[in-house]
């Protein structure tokens, strides 16, 4: 069958152009201020293509181009940035224990930050969040709210409006977008927290990179549970068809047959052995606390390990070992060799890294070359990811 039908070709070309435009905007936001020449070099495209994409956005006031003194005597260059046009975005990270709310512009920088306990009831939690959003909008009445991004520790629906299931929250089928909808009609995007964190980490890594975009990597976010975000060809992957929004739930893959009971209903899930929250049960030896005994939090276990307590160090080494087992499984299943770890587990990176790498090296992946695991953000990717989800959707739409 001839696959060169002109209509099909035009669709393919349009998709390629749209994707390239998204990459260009993503690069500008990550590396701003940046020259057109640098954009062309990092995306391996002609400078004329950059100009073709940038000029209309400068005319519309989305981007701005200014003269900046460059390195070297008397040399000056024109650099592109997002314009300070009074627009802003709200991010909400609905965590299992804490909820963070913050705002940001397209030039970055978190403002209007708030941190509050997450009520167990979704109705109570979303009411509190909505009240805080309304207070922010009133306070920033002279500026325009463009998008609200909400990151959640669970699966979302295909339209990114509803939370389907968040085992660690105990929430199921919650229409978050409707609950947080404002009279202004500002769009609300609901994103899995690991996927949102992957967007955030991608922007940081792009800024640090000397060339190209961060095209393929796996983001593993470990806190109360474990979530996995996938970036493939510089785009986040959410699954396809009816499974869209479900991709990345590796925290609930079984790594110990008949193991510990998980809140999802399964036994032996990865997050029961390699999340920050699993440290307490590993430290206690899976026994209930004695009368008057306090179960230590993850940061306390790390502090004790740093002080030389052997029991704490062994606990964190076990977490590193189980983390490595799961990472090897994910790399083999997805076929992407670069991994970034974010979340509270990063606070113990110096203690978990060696056993994690040893576990990966015992696997088939460990016998190959080219895999890498690096530490990302321990905390900022939570609210940062929520804001990033809002901004990413805005960039896709423009």
**Overall domain count:** 3
Task: Report mean pLDDT, rounded to a whole number.
Answer: 87
CA-CA gap between termini? 36 Å
* Strand-pairing-aware structural class: alpha/beta
CATH superfamily of the largest domain: ATPase, nucleotide binding domain
Task: Give me the count of strands.
Answer: 16
- Strand share of the residues? 15-25%
Helix-strand string: HEHHEEEEEHEEEEHEHEEEHHHHEHEH
Please give the count of helices.
Answer: 12
Query: What are the low-pLDDT stretches, counting only 5+ consecutive residues below 50?
Result: 1-15
Shape: globular
| CATH T-level topology of the largest domain | Nucleotidyltransferase, domain 5
Looking at the chains present, what oligomeric state does this protein adopt?
Answer: single chain
Largest sheet: 5 strands, mixed
- Helix content range: 40-55%
- Roughly how many Å is the radius of gyration? 22 Å
Under the CATH scheme, which class of the largest domain? Alpha Beta
Placed side by side, the strands forming the largest sheet appear as 6-5-4-7-11
Structural topology:
Layout: H1 6-31, E1 34-35, H2 36-43, H3 47-59, E2 63-69, E3 76-82, E4 87-94, E5 98-104, E6 110-117, H4 122-139, E7 144-152, E8 155-156, E9 163-166, E10 171-174, H5 176-179, E11 188-192, H6 193-208, E12 217-222, E13 226-232, E14 235-237, H7 271-274, H8 278-284, H9 298-306, H10 310-334, E15 338-342, H11 349-361, E16 372-375, H12 381-397
Parallel strand pairs: 4-7, 7-11, 12-15, 15-16
Antiparallel strand pairs: 1-3, 2-3, 4-5, 5-6, 8-9, 9-10, 12-13, 13-14
């Amino acid at each position: 069958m001839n696959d060169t039908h002109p209509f099909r070709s035009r669709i393919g070309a349009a998709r390629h152009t749209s994707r390239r435009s998204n990459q260009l905007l993503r690069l500008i936001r990550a590396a701003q201020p940046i020259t057109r020449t640098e954009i062309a070099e990092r995306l391996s495209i002609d400078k004329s293509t950059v100009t073709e994409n940038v000029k209309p956005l400068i005319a519309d006031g989305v981007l701005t181009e200014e003269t900046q003194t460059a390195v070297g005597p008397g040399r000056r260059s024109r650099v592109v940035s997002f314009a300070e046009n009074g627009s802003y975005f709200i991010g909400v990270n609905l965590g299992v224990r804490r909820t963070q709310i913050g705002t940001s512009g397209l030039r970055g920088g978190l403002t209007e930050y708030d941190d509050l306990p997450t009520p167990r009831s979704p109705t109570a939690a979303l009411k509190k969040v909505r009240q805080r959003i309304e207070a922010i909008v009133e306070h920033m009445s002279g500026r325009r709210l463009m998008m609200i991004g909400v990151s959640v520790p669970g699966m979302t629906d295909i339209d990114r409006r509803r939370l389907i299931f968040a085992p660690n929250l105990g929430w199921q089928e919650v229409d978050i977008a409707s609950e947080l909808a404002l009279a202004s009609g500002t769009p609300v995007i609901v994103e899995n927290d690991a996927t949102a964190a992957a967007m955030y980490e991608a922007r940081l890594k792009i800024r640090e990179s000397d060339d190209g975009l961060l095209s393929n990597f796996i983001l593993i976010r470990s806190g109360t549970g474990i979530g996995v975000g996938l970036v493939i060809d510089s785009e986040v992957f959410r699954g396809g068809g009816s499974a869209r929004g479900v991709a990345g739930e590796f925290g609930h893959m079984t790594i110990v047959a008949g193991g510990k009971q998980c809140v999802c209903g399964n036994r032996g899930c990865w997050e029961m052995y390699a999340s920050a929250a699993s440290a307490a049960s590993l430290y206690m030896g899976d026994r209930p606390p004695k009368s008057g005994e306090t179960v230590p939090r993850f940061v306390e276990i790390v502090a004790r390990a740093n002080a030389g307590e052997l029991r704490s160090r062994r606990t964190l080494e076990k977490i590193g070992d189980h983390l490595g087992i799961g990472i090897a499984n994910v790399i083999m299943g997805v076929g992407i060799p670069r991994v970034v770890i974010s979340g509270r587990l990063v606070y113990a990176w110096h203690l978990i890294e060696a056993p994690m790498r040893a576990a990966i090296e015992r696997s088939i992946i460990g016998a190959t070359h080219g895999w890498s695991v690096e530490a990302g953000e321990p905390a900022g990717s939570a609210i940062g990811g929520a804001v990033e989800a809002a901004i990413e959707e805005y960039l896709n739409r423009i």
